Every structure is written in structure tokens, then in C-alpha cells.
Amino acid sequence: MDTLVVELDGGMVHLRRAWNELKAGRVAPLGPTQVADPESDDRYLALRPSCYCAGVESCDDFWPRLVREAVRAGLGRHIKRVVVLTDGTDWIWQQSRCQLGLPGWR
């Protein structure tokens, strides 16, 4: 197991008579178990058990929450690669590299 998948996004929730952004993240190690597509029999690495985090908070407060889950899943120990799955939101891409210790984008 050397790859960690990190998914994160934001969405709007209505709280206290106002709309607020809820930030949510999922962290899951990838492989080594494989699964087969029942129609094509193509094989893919399976996600291992996931951890989730969410908060109606600022980006600066959310990132430590997500990084804690990534460290629990192996970031900084045996993880050699982090795959970030998200949309093009600035608050995510501006911080992903430094918060998750990524060497750069290809």
C-alpha cells in the first residue's frame, strides 16, 4: 500500500437562517486488493476502508482536520503517492500541495 486517495469538496448547507459552505473530505488507501468489473472483467485497485471529515468552517480550520485523517491513513510513513480528486475550486488546489506534502503537479 503506497497510494492514498484524498477526495474533497465544498457544498452549501442552510444553517441559522443563512447559507454556509460545508467542506467535506474522504481519505482512503488504495490497493493492493483488486476488484473486477463484472461486465468487462477489467481489474482495478480497490479502495481500502475510508475516513471522512466535514465541517462548516474556514479553509484554514478544515485543512488540519483533513490532514489528521491522511496521517492516520499513513501519510508521512509508508505512503509514497497522494491522489487528490476534486473540482477546480481555488481553496483546494491552492493548499493541496503544501498541506499534503505533494512534490508538484504533473
Low-confidence stretches: none
Q: How far apart are the first and last residues' alpha carbons, in Å?
A: 22 Å
Summarize the main sheet. 5 strands, mixed
Helix/strand-derived category reads alpha+beta
Question: Roughly how many Å is the radius of gyration?
Answer: 15 Å
The figure for the number of domains is 1
Number of helices: 2
Shape: globular
Run of helices and strands: EEEEHEH
Bin the strand percentage. Answer: 35-45%
Description of the molecule:
The chain is of the alpha+beta class and 106 residues long. The protein has one domain. The protein has 2 helices and 5 strands, in the order ββββαβα. Strands 1, 2, 3, 4 and 5 form a 5-stranded mixed β-sheet that branches. Strand 1 and strand 2 form a beta hairpin. Helix 1 crosses helix 2. The protein is globular and about 50 Å long. The mean pLDDT is 89.
Briefly say what this structure is.
This protein has one domain. It contains 2 helices and 5 strands, in the order ββββαβα. Strands 1, 2, 3, 4 and 5 form a 5-stranded mixed sheet that branches.
Which features does this protein show?
2 helices; 106 residues; 44% strand; alpha+beta
List the helices and strands and how they pair.
Elements: E1 3-15, E2 18-36, E3 43-47, E4 51-55, H1 59-72, E5 81-85, H2 90-99
Parallel strand pairs: 1-5
Antiparallel strand pairs: 1-2, 2-3, 2-4
Helix pairs in contact: 1-2
